[in-house]
Amino acid sequence: MEEENSLIKIRKDKLNEIRSELNINPFPYNYTVTHHSSEIIKNFDDSAPSEAEVSAAGRIMTVREMGKASFCTIQDRDGRIQIYVAINNVGEQNYKLFKKLDIGDIIGVKGTVKKTKTGEISIFATSLTLLSKSIRPLPVVKEKDGEVFDAFADKELRYRNRHVDLIVTPGVKETFIKRIAIIKHIKKILDGKGFYEVETPVLQPLYGGASASPFTSRHNALDMTLYLRISLEPYLKRLIVGGFDRVYEIGKCFRNEGIDRTHNPEFTMLELYQSYADFTDMMAITEEIIEQTAIAITGGTTIAYEGKEINLKTPWRRLKVVDALKEYAGLDVMAMSDADLAAEVKKTGAEIKGDFIWGLAIDELFKQLVEEKLVQPVFITHHPVETTPLCKPDYSDERFLQRFELFINATEIANAYSESNDPVFQRTTLYEQSLRRSVDEEAPPMDENFVQAIETGMPPTGGLGIGIDRVVMLLTGETSIRDVLLFPTMRPQD
Questions:
Q1: pLDDT for res 468
Q2: Whose CA is closest to 369, among 341, 322, 404, 329?
Q3: For residues 489 and 266, is the Cβ–Cβ distance under 8 A?
Q4: 410 vs 208, which has greater pLDDT?
């Protein structure tokens, strides 16, 4: 800390000298940029170097001072380019300014593009403009006795200082550029299918659409409790009732839960609903979204992830929950008694809150014994009816639902239903679920207004939710959700 404070003092002294001795404003209002580093390098013609002047701007990342001629490297939005600064070209005043610059400062450079004697494409500066003086030093890689020490290797430090991470850590910015591209491509697919992109309330008087603990707030003027939404579902379904036959939203959801490799309290979901469709239609849309987005981002359907090769070529496997338990865990749950099921759940170390419920026991066994084994894409279908109150039972066996979860690399990527539109069934199941709040704090409350919307009449509807953050992890090769969130939630510093 003392070293940092001393460096900051030195930089502040330079800042004052630039102002007082050189009479230069170190924080001007604007600067005209005509070219960026990548296009300068790409368009350079060695056989006929252009004498036309370019104007570039960026952050100084390296400096080499050599008397009356020096070099620096600037980093702009596209990459890096070397700058040659000679007193004979920029003048004495500009060169004095250059001598007071530090790594991290942002400058504007005008000049011509040539190759140096070492063959590096560079801007030969004719003028320099200081655009922002950095008084806080960037972390740098240090070497001592042949060993490299990276002052910014600690990932927690990087997450807390993402602005610095984006500057100094190779590949971080590219990950987030890919995230932007992924979301754009998904929207392009859905827009092309006639879906309307909509916005629904983030602050809600009641929460629902999932089992989770909400974040609670207070509206002073109305003197009422509000909740950050845990799902996009309740209001999107109201739009289906209102006559929007195809709607989607890509937005933030909030769940007051733990933090791990695939969970953050604030995360991004895609939810879509299509009238006159069912969960099989949602399978087709899911396959198209992920396969086509993978091709657009990675160039193909085969990706390497955590040392495994994952094939995203469609169609993907369909497997019922009970069949998955038989195949991966050797359990024929349909032939087991309640006591046997309870004993198997206990063996896993898990527990079911409240009284024993057959479907929840099967669901828990699946989570504990099967999920981690699902590497290649697979639709796990026909979950027990007790797991989901907003889904239609399967017409062939009403103990199970027309629902699927998509698993890739042992991670749930998507969840979809043939949505329940029977208002009597809906009212009963939501009420029964709300009664579990006495033993399960994550059970959502009864939402009378939502039920009344369904009572108005909702057409047969297929609904789909896709975890955007997890898709980004998959297609960028990142293994932690924090690496695909610009500003992940962090614990308080000591």
A1: 98
A2: 329
A3: yes
A4: 410
